[in-house]
Amino acid sequence: MKRTILIILPILFLQTIRLFAQIPVQTIPVQTIPVQTIRSYFNEQNAYQTVAFVEQRWRLAGNNGFNESIGYVEKILKEAGFIRDDEGRSAATLTYRIEKRPMKRPAWEPVDAQLWIVGEAAPLLSFSTNRNMLAIYSASTPEGGVTAELIESGNDMKKDTGVKDLKGKILMADGDIGGVYANAARQGAIGALSYSMPGYTQPEKYRHSIQFSNIGYTDSLTQRWGILLSYDARERLKAALARGPVQLKVITKTKIYPSEELTIVADVKGAVKPEERFVFSAHVQEPGANDNATGVGTLAEMARVTARLVQEGKLKPQRTLTFLWGDEIVSTRRYIKEDSIRARGIKWGLSLDMVGEDTKKTGGTFLIEKMPDPSAIWTRGNDKHSEWGGSPLSEADLFPHYFNDVLLNRCRAEAAGTGWVVKTNPFEGGSDHTPFLQAKIPGLLMWHFTDVFYHTDADRLDKVSSATMRHVGVSALSTAYLLTTANSRATVGLIRDVTRNALERLQNETAIGKANIKGGGDADKENHILGVWRDWYLKAVELMSDIPVIGVDANVKAEIAASRKKILKAIHRL
Asked: How far is CA 349 from CA 60, 283, 328, 344, 480, in A?
C-alpha cells in the first residue's frame, strides 16, 4: 500500500514544493521556488517547436544542420535575455558564448541517395523515405550514379578476402558497415551494402527501419560509399540473388568539406558562489527527433524559463547554472578538461538525451541512469539494465553520492498523479554523463529506452511527446534550483528524503537476501551485498554536507549523524 509521509519544514524566505503524492516514504521537498511556478513557466510547445526545427536537419558536428541548430538555440537565448560574451568578461547574470574549434576531419552531410535493382520500376531505397541509408562519410557517385554487379559475402568476411573478384562490383554482407566497407574497398569494390539491425528494433515488424552508422574516412580522392539496408531491402536483394545475377544502380550525393565545430554555452551566474555550478548538457549531433532534438529543445526551454524567473526576481541562484549544447561526450569532456579551475567548481552534471518520447509509440521507458551504485554490480529485484546493457563493475567502481536519489525524488514528485512513469537503470555509460563521472564529478543521465526506433530513420517528430519534455524539464530544473540555492533547512529536508530512500533500499535488499538464503544461496555473499549498500548510503549521506551554499551548521551535522544511526540500525546479519 503506497503512502505519503508528511514533514513540514517552515523556512524563512523559502517556499515548499507540493507533496510527493502516492510515493512511499517521501517527505515534502524544500524548494526556493514552488514547482507549480516552474511548471507554469515551462511552455512545452516551445520545446516541441525547437524539436520540429532541429529534427529536420541531418546533424553531425561541423555540418550545416548542426550549425543551424546551434543558431536556433542562440536565437532562443538572445530572446530570453542572455547576452553574448565570447570573452567571458561580462558582469551580467545571463550570458552565453559560442565556442569554435577547427575539426581534424571534414564535416559530412547527406544530400540524396537511391538504390535500384536494375529492371525494377521503383527504387529499393530512397533517401527521401530512408534518411539513414547513406553511411556517414560516404562519397558521392559520379553524376547519374553507377551500375554494377552485386556480390553477396558470407558472414565471415576474413574467409572471403581474396576469394571473389570484387573489382568494380558492389559487396553486400551482414554486419557493421564500417567493417564491410573496409573489406570491400580493400578488394576493389566500388561500394558496400550492409545489414545490421539489433533485435530490440524489431526489424521483422518495422521492415523499413535503418539505423545510421559510419564508414572510415581516408581522403576525397579514394573515398567510396556505403549503404545501410533495411530488413525489407536485404530480403528483397537476397530473393533477387536467388534467381540469378543482380545488377544494382546506386546514386549518392553528399557534401564533405572543412568546417568548425561549434559549442554553445549559457551561464546564469550565481550570486554567492559563482565558481560552483550545476551543468546541464544536451548533444546536438545525430539525425533523430527523440535522439536528440528533444534534449536540445527541452534544454533550450529550461534556459528560457530560468532567465525569465531570474529577470522577474522569482529565482536567485546562489551557484551558477550552466547549459551546454554540443557534440556528444566530446563537448562535455572538453568543458570539464580544458579549464581545471572551472572543473573543480562543477558540483553536479546532468545529461538530457532522448527525453521526449511518446512511450506508447516507441516502447521506451523514461529512465534515470544512476551513478555507479551496488545495483550495477548485483542487478536484482526491481533493478534492471536496459537493452543498451552495461559492463560488469567492481566495488572499486562505485560512486557513492546523494545525487541519484535527489533527482529521482524530484522526478517522482513531478510524476505523482500524472501517469508519467519514472524508473531507473544501473549505470551503463555512453552519453554525456560519462565525462562527469570520469572526472569524479557526480553525473546523471535522463533518457528513454528500450526504443524500437532508436537510431533509426523512423525516429521522427510523430514519436515525440511535448508532455514528456515538460515533465523532464520541470524535474531537472527543480533539482538544479534546489541544489544551487539550498540553505541549512533545505539540506535537512533533503537528508531526510535520502535517508528514507536508503532505508527502503536496505529493507528491499534484506528481503531479497533472505529469499536467496532460503533458496540455498550463500549467506556470506548476501550479508556482504547488504553491507555494501549500507556503506554506499552512509557515504552518500555524509557527502550531503556540501549542499548548503553558505556551509554546514549544527543542524545539518546533527541530521547527518541521525541519518547514519538510522542506516546502521536498519540491517542485521541474515
From this structure: 23, 14, 14, 12, 10
Paired residues of 83 in beta bridges = 95
Residue 56 CB-density burial (10 A; 0-12 exposed, 13-18 middle, 19+ buried): middle
Closest Cα to residue 327, out of 295, 356, 355, 357? 295
Instruction: Please report the sign of the dihedral spanned by the C-alpha atoms of residue 126, residue 128, residue 130, residue 132.
Output: positive
Predicted local confidence at residue 3, as pLDDT: 29
Q: How far apart are CA 184 and CA 167, in angstroms?
A: 9
Q: Distance between CA 152 and CA 166 in Å, rounded?
A: 10
Contacts for 480 with CB less than 8 Å, ≥ 6 apart: 278, 280, 321, 348, 350
d(CA 99, CA 231): 41
Does residue 475 sit in helix, strand or coil?
A: helix
Q: Helix-strand-coil percent breakdown of the chain, rounded to 5?
A: 40, 20, 40
Short-list 28, 33, 2, 1, CA closest to 15:
33
Q: Which class for 259: exposed (0-12), middle (13-18), buried (19 or more C-beta within 10 A)?
A: buried
Report helix, strand or coil for 170.
Answer: strand
Model confidence over 126-159: pLDDT tens digits? 999 999 999 999 999 999 999 999 999 875 444 5
Radius of gyration of the chain (CA): 26
Question: What are the counts of helices (DSSP H) followed by strands (DSSP E) for the chain?
Answer: 16, 18
Strands 146-152 and 170-174, how do they pair?
A: parallel
Query: Is the preceding omega at residue 292 within 30 degrees of 0, hence cis?
Result: yes
Spatial distance between the Cα atoms of 56 and 128, rounded to a whole number of angstroms: 12
pLDDT, tens digit, for every residue of 529-554?
999 999 999 999 999 999 999 999 99
